[in-house]
Specification:
The protein is an all-alpha fold and about 80 residues long. The chain contains five helices and no strands. The protein starts with a helix and ends with a helix.
């Protein structure tokens, strides 16, 4: 059963506030915040869009499931 093997992938709507996606989000927020503090907002913006976002939306196993892509696109 796929759901019992990987419940995060089987039910992405229930994992927004827990688990590895929350930890990953906190890590991204920390890195971008550090870049913003050390450099400036435009450098942090460029860092996110050129180095982080392509990996998040890669469609690979380590990327965000495709169910989340419309949510990411709205923000």
């Amino acid at each position: 059963d796929a759901e019992s093997e990987n419940p995060l992938m089987a039910n992405p709507g229930t994992t927004r506030s827990v688990g590895p996606y929350n930890v990953t989000g906190d890590a991204v927020q920390t890195v971008i915040g550090g870049a913003h503090h050390q450099f400036d907002g435009s450098a942090a913006h460029r860092l996110f869009h050129t180095r982080i976002l392509p990996h998040i939306l890669s469609g690979k196993v380590e990327g965000v499931p495709s169910d989340f892509h419309p949510i990411i696109g709205r923000h």
